[in-house]
Amino acid sequence: MTAPRRDPHLGELASAFADDALDLTTRDRVLVHLAHCAECRAEVDGHRQVKARLAKLEPPSCPSSLLDRLRALPETTPADRVTPALTPPPVRLEASFRSVAPAGRSTGGRRPVAAVAPGRRRPAGRRTAGSRPGGRRLRRRVVATAVGGVAAFALSLGTVVVLGGEEQPSTVNPPVLTYIQEHGAVTGGVAGGDREASVVDVADPHE
Amino acid sequence: MKLVDPRAGLLRAARRLVLVMGAGALGAVVCSTGVYLFVPAPVETTGAGQSGGGSTPRTAPAFTSSIRTLGASERQALELLRRAGRAQNQVDYQGTKLFRSWSRWGEMTTTAFVRNVPGRGVTVIAEDGSTRSATGQRVPQLVSAESHLDLSDETLATLTQAYRVRIVAAERLLGRPVTRVDVLRLSGTVVGRLWVDDATGLAVQRELLDTAGRVIRRSAFTGLSVLGPAASPTPSPSAATVDDCAGGLTADELAELASEGWDLPGRQLAGLTQVCARTVGTGVDRSIQLSYSDGLFALSLFAQRGRLDEAVPGGFKRRQVGDTAVYLRCGLYRELSWAGSGMVYTLVTDAPDATVTTVVESLPTVAADTGVLARMSKGIRRVGSWVDPFH
C-alpha cells in the first residue's frame, strides 16, 4: 500500500542545482520540477543571487591561528553527531528522489542523501565517500580484525611448531656391568667367546 | 555529557576478541589440516653407514644355512669345537686363568681363579679376592647355574659360512696333550686359534686376531685341575641352543618398537648376523639387547631411549670414534656408550676395532628432521594424539 503521490519541493537540492553540483539524471528531474514549480524556481533564483553576490565580495581576512585551529579540528566531532538538524529534510523528497544524489556520488549507493538520518545529515558534496567516518571506522575494524587474525594464526602455528620440537629425553646411565653379563649369557656359546671372561670383566676392580 | 556504559565497551571488546581469535584459529586449523594431509610424517634422513636397514621390516632372528660344502677334515675340526662347547657343562674343573685384551684404545690383563661345577655354574674369584657368580653378584658361594653353552649346528653353520676351520697340529699345554684348531677367513688368513684338551675337550686357550694378524684377545689356563671326568652322555648338539635368548622379541614386536621411534639396526650389523633380540630391564631402565655373531666374534648392542648422562661412568673415558664422541672402557670387551637421535647405545663386543668403528658410525641410522614443516607436522600429530583416544 503506497501513499498518494504528492508534488515535493526541491529543498536543499535547489542549492545543489544552483551550484551546478548535480549529476545529469538528477539535474533533468530538477529541471522538470522547476518547469511547473514557481516556488522552487524562486528558491533557485534566490540561491543564484546569493551566490552571485557572494562571488563579488572580497575574501574575508582570517587569522592564521584560527585557520590552524580549524585544521586541527577532527573531521568528526561528538557534537557533529548529536547536533540536531536545523532544517528538517523535505518530508516527501525521499519518495520522489530516492535515487537522487549529488554529482560525484554513486546513484546506486545504499545511503542516498535523502535517506540520511537527520542527526547525521551533511551538506551534499562536502565529503567524499572515503572520508566518511563510518567508512573509516569500518576500515579500521577490518584492519584490526585482519591483524588480530594474523596474530592468532601465527600464535597457533608457533604453538604447534614448539610442540613439534624434540622432547627433552630423560637422562639414562647405561648399566654396563649388567650388559656385559647379558652379553656373556647370550654369546657365550660362540666359538671365540668365553663365558668366564664376562664374569671376570665385571669383577674388574676399575668398575 | 554522554555517559558510556563500561560493560557495553567490554562486551564489544570481547566480541571483537572472539571474532579475531576465531578467525585466526580457523586459519590455523585450515593450514594445520593442510600440513597434516599433504606433509608426510616427519621424514628421517638416513645417516651415513646405515648397516641394518633400520626402517625395513625385520624378520625373526635366524641363522643362515651354510651353502659351503665341508670337507672331512673341516668336519673333524668342527666336531672338536663342538666338543669344546659342551665340555663346560660336563667337566668339573678349577684353575687359574689369564685374560688379555688389546685394542687401539687400550689393553687389559687380568687373572682369576675359576671354579666350574657342571650343572651349577662357574664362579670366579677375581684378583681382589671378591667372589662373583656368573650374574656378577658378590656372593660367598656358587649360586648360578650355567647352561646353553653348547655350539649348536646353527652356530657352526654361521661360522663355516664366514670362515674355514682346520686342525693344525697336536701340541702340549700345561703338560696336557691338546689339539690346535685354527679358524681362517675365506681369504686364508688366521682369525682365531683354539687349543682343545684331548682328554676333556676343554678349550684351554683361545686367541682372536684382527685383520692385521695381531692378537686382540687371549684367554688361557695357567693352571688347570680336572676334578671329575666328563659327565654322562651328551645331548645331541642340534638340540642345544647357542644362547640364552629367553624372552626374545618377535619381528612384529621389533617393528612396533621401530614405529615408536626406537632406532634399531636390522638383522645385519657390521657383517654380523643377529642371533638374539630381547628386552633387558623394565620401565625407565628398559633396554633392547640385539646380539650379533658370525660364529666367532660376537657383539651385543643395547639400546635405550633418552640422552646419555654427561657424567662419565667410573672406569670409562671420553673418546672419539670416527665422528662420534663415546664413553669407552677397555675391559676384556670393548665397551662403548654413545648417544644420538634420542637413543643411547651401549656396545659390548670382542670384535676388532674396525668392527667397533663401523657399528658406532652406523648408529643412529637416522637423523631427526628439524625443519619447520617437520616440526609442525609432529606438533599437529602430538596435539591430535591428545584428543584422539585411540592414538
Structural write-up:
The complex is a heterodimer of chains A (207) and B (391). With 207 residues, chain A is mainly α. In chain A, 52% of the residues lie in helices and 1% in strands. Chain B is elongated and about 110 Å long. Chain B has six helices and 20 strands. In chain B, strand 13 (287-293) and strand 14 form a beta hairpin. Chain B has helices at residues 6-38, 72-87, 153-162, 251-259, 353-362, 372-387; strands at 45-46, 92-103, 106-117, 121-125, 131-132, 163-173, 176-185, 190-197, 203-209, 215-228, 268-269, 272-280, 287-293, 298-305, 307-308, 317-321, 324-330, 334-340, 343-349, 366-367.
Listing every helix as H and every strand as E from the N terminus to the C terminus, the arrangement of chain B reads HEHEEEEHEEEEEHEEEEEEEEEHEH
Order of neighbouring strands in the sheet with most strands of chain B = 5-4-3-2-10-9-8-7-6
Total number of helices of chain B: 6
Which range best describes the helical content of chain A: under 10%, 10-25%, 25-40%, 40-55%, 55-70% or over 70%? 40-55%
Order of helices and strands of chain A: HHHHHHHEHH
**Taking all residues together, what is the mean pLDDT of chain A?**
70
**What is the approximate shape of chain A?**
rod-shaped
Largest interface: A-B, 63 and 108 residues
Total beta-strand segments of chain B: 20
What's the short story on this structure?
The complex is a heterodimer of chains A (207) and B (391). Chain A has 207 residues and is mostly helical. Chain A has helices at residues 13-18, 24-36, 38-56, 64-72, 78-82, 93-96, 133-163, 176-187, 195-202; one strand at 171-172.
